[in-house]
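I had to read the description of the data format several times before I understood it. For illustration, here is how one protein appears when written out as sequence plus structure tokens:
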Amino acid sequence: MSDAPTMVDVIIDDVHVSVPKGTLVIRAAEQAGIRIPRFCDHPLLEPVAACRQCLVEVGMPDRNTGELRFMPKPQPSCAQTVAPGMVVKTQHTSGVADTAQRGVMEFLLINHPLDCPVCDKGGECQLQDLAVGYGMSSSRYEEEKRAVKPKEMGPLISTQEMSRCIHCTRCVRFTEEIAGEQEIGIANRGELSEIMTFVGKAVETELSGNVIDLCPVGALTSKPFRFNARTWELSRRKSVSAHDALGSNLEVQTKEHTVRRVLPRENEAINECWLSDKDRFAYEGLNHESRLTQPKIKHGGEWQTVDWPTALEYVRHTLECVGNEYGKDQIAVWANPMNTVEELYLAKKLANGLGVNATTARLRESDSRLSGSLQGAQWLGQTIEELADNNAVLVVGAVLRKEQPLLTARLRRAAKNGMAVSVLSAQAEELHMPLLSQDVRHPNTWADYLNNLPEAVAGSLQNAERAAIVLGAEVQNHPDYAAIYHAAQKAALALGARFGILPQAANSVGADVLGFNQAAIADLVAQPKKAVLLLNVEPDADVLGGGKAVDSLKQAGSVLAFTAYESDTLLDVADVLLPIAPFTETSGSFISMEGRLQSFYGVTKALGDSKPLWKVLRVLGNLFALDGFGFESSEEVLAEALGNADALPEKLNNFSNGQVQAAFNNADKLVRVGGVGIYHTDPIVRRAASLQQTQHAAVPEARVHPMTLSMLGLVDGDAVLAEQHGHTANVTVRADKTLPENVVHLPHHPANAQLGGLMNTIKLTRA
């Protein structure tokens, strides 16, 4: 049976065009190279014909005589589908359509404040552009204009000029259709209509910033960017997101060597035309007051600013002394998995040259039993588009909206179109999509669940033409990761489903491809080394059991920190601080969750005396007189690191040939879940002021099932002491019936970062 669509022939402005049945007239016109003005229309939103700017003349052949008859009134091309024999006349060939569009434009401008000189949207405003082509030189409207009071939509979106709103409802439809949570609505009717949030709520969806792009006028603007610069003053550079593994394409806009705004760069295969709030607003952290701009060395407990030659010689001397006195096995390298391919490659090459094997970028992993059994780098197992094209998907141990907001939006759309989505997790996340199954179970029972899948879930995967099982971050941080992994792999093989991983950082896949993870972070924390190199790592926030990691570093002989930021912890544990450039100030490459290699260039010059990490590592290699460190560019490093880039797919393979026994199979232990807070994942995001003002960044409470609370002798609202591995944090407990028993939902946050690893046991006692 053929999947080819039924084609329909239509004539638009005397141009014959053939398009699939069901195509909107406005899309057919685009295919014919004819532009019809519009405001409310968007290719990824459902049509509503709200603005009427796209009016055209539509003619159809008479059913009896075949004579062409035009409809008595112009029709909205954004809501009219094509039909056989249809003839369409746009503003280019029809005086009726042109007059109608000009009339609509006059109507839309009646109440518009016409404040273009002070509008943040000026220079990129659709209303401004179309008014030039279809507006009148003067207004016939002499009455008093309507004024709309601003609404409070939170720290990211400004509504100070809501009088500009033309009620296109793009923002309303986006929150409902794409973000899944309708936080914006339209109240009243006619001239009294107003866009507002429900019951005074802030817009808090993880994708909220997209309504700023969608707004065709200046009604919704960016609070962090407000009055910061005009669009024509900004330089535009292409880049790639460093804040998750999706690999979202960015347009970074700069002025005076600082990043002023980040916008999505359209890529249908990855982020479409959207951007998560994390990617959009994280740039605020780039020039945070804690940026390290000069090398520093600690002498006698006091920090002194030094030059780069002095600092690098200190590093060289320290490593040489430790290696000679204690052995090369007493040196370790902890690297952030958001570091680029080039940086990780040179770090490993330097380590190999020095005879150091203790390198890792899996900083939150508590079970390393998969090491050595994997056939390649862990990845999604398919492309992002292929994942959304599956008929059935089982997601295990992922806090989807927090881990991958844009990927979740794709899955949401697919679920609405018929995909059977099943979820196994330790919390009932509100995903705003139809689900075949949402099983909320204690994490220690996940392996058993996968070994004995419910009939409905197993049937959906087995009967699907295309199916997938995907493991999220909660599984990867589980102390029984290997057992859950093998159970999922076994299920995928038995049911004919693809098996994939949702990596936790921008270059987690790249670290695997390079073979960087040669040691287990748990071992490195438990057995402190004499010298530790921290590559863009904040140990209290980025490492398994923050407090325990800090204690371990305090026992180390020397801690050499290559970092973009100062922090109280680094100032306490480190002996030298070397300022490195964040991804916007250097060139490099990431390998995304789908195994896609994407390279980028720096968009601004380095702040102060900071240097790209790959250059620092190159110089260190030369100081040690190691061969092969004569690189002149990051492109040369990448070429050596990956060899033939076309062969990259051969290095991606989730199959494990190992066999492990489940270490945990009961649900009687009190286990912490919740993952890492969405706005606490990396050093840049943690310093983005606006993101830290959202509810997602608020200090979390410990949510526990009422029965578990009762067994612990606690009640809702108690102030308690949470304890993991000898470290404590003060938290408030709340009863939550949606959680399994013996589960504590407490996401990782700076307020509790000192606690032990996620997915590990936890103790709660009344404070």
